[in-house]
Every structure is written in structure tokens, then in C-alpha cells.
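Fold this sequence, please.
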Amino acid sequence: MNEVNNDELQNILFDISKKNIIPKFKNLKKSEIQYKNINDLVTSVDIKVEEELKDKLTSLLPNSLFVGEEIFSKNPKVIDAYKEKKFCWTVDPIDGTTNFTQGKEKFATMIALSYQDKILQSWIYKPLTEEFSYAILNGGAYINSKKILISANSSIHNSIGSISFKYWEEKYEKKMKNLKIFFKNINSYRCIGFEYIDIVKGIRDFAILSKVSVWDHIAGILILREAGGVDMHFDNSTYNHCIKKNNLIVSSSKILQNEIINLIKEN
């Protein structure tokens, strides 16, 4: 298969954003917001954007499969698509739904294309600024068509990032709260797509993550890796979207990654 054309993907994201996302920003009715479970919001915009992306992307690549966050919430077996010998799209229609519903500017649309356990290409699009980030396996990471490499090399005491504040197993819950003092600053965007891009830009350095849902991370992981960043679970294995596993660290460098892993093991 030839690479999916990045300009074509950018046009798809631009058109869907202008049609469905931008008009509803700070303009959602209460009836358009609901809880799909006890913790997570969904809006009519999430659903509409995912539906349109499924139609556009599977038309772009005939016989490809599709995993979307909102489809998964109704049919968890859709995740079995990764086991098949077919190309598969993974979509988070609005990463940062809570921010979007509150009129906050950090939200994004994320897409990845995979074949079984290989992430081939990925894209993160910010509707409000039209910033378009993408990566190609073994082909680099780009922001607005400019290749980007991580230059930051912060030590743990000078690093800025986030630590998940919920979903930890009992053995990690207290430990994660105690870790905060070792870093320069801990804060969450509540939009992991934004955090991945800011790690690549050198604005942030890491994220320590409890619950790892594939649509939240598959796109950002490839961009991070291609820009020179690293990812590792607490058991020292790297992220694999085909395997359900939590407790993940993503960071700007191997040195910082190892410092964080050692800190978790020591405390």
C-alpha cells in the first residue's frame, strides 16, 4: 500500500471541522451533551464527526476496518479489528470532550492507520488553530509540513508534565500523589492529544498515564516515536495497541523515561 496522502487527510479534517465542530464550539445545547458512562461525556458532535470520518476514511481505503471511540462504547468487540490482516483506522473524534463542552480551547481530532500491530501513519488536528501534525512509520514526524525532532532533554527535577488523577490500581494510587514533588510542575490539559504535541515541541516533557484507551494514544505514540520520544509501560514493555495494558509513561527522552521508572519503583 502507498502512503495515505497527508494533504487529503488534512482537507478531510478541515472540512469536517468547519462543518461540524467549529459551529458548535461554545454553542452546544444541553440536549446535545450526555454521559455515555459514569465518567465520560459524549456530545452529538463526537458522534457526527466519527460517523463522517468513518465514511470518508473507509472510502479512501476500500476494505479497511474502523475503530472509533463512540462505536466502541456501544460495541466493545470492534477492537478485534486489530487482529485481522487488514488496514484499520482508529479515530478519536474529539479528544478533550469535556474541554469542548466547557468552551475551553484544548481539544483535537486524532486518527491513526494501522496494520495488525504496526502503526503506519497518524494525524492530530486542532480545529481552532488548524494545526496539523502527522507521522509516517520510519518517515518522521511533522507539524504543518515541517519535520520536527525533540530537542528537550530535561532532568526529572526540571520536567513538566502530567500524572493521571484517576483510574489507578490501589497499589499505585498513593504513590502517584507522592511523586508530584519530584517534578518542576504537574498539570493536565485534559486532552492527551495536545500533550503529545507539546512533548514533541519541547513545551512539556512527559505524561504518566493510568487508563490507556487505544483511541487516546495510538496517534500520539507514532508522532512521539518518530520525533525521537519514547514510551514504556511500568513493566518496561513498549506500547502495543493490540494488547490491552494500562500504566504507561510517554516522555521526551530515554534518560527521563528511566528516571521516572526508577522513581516509581523506589517510592
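The mean pLDDT is 96. The radius of gyration is 18 Å.
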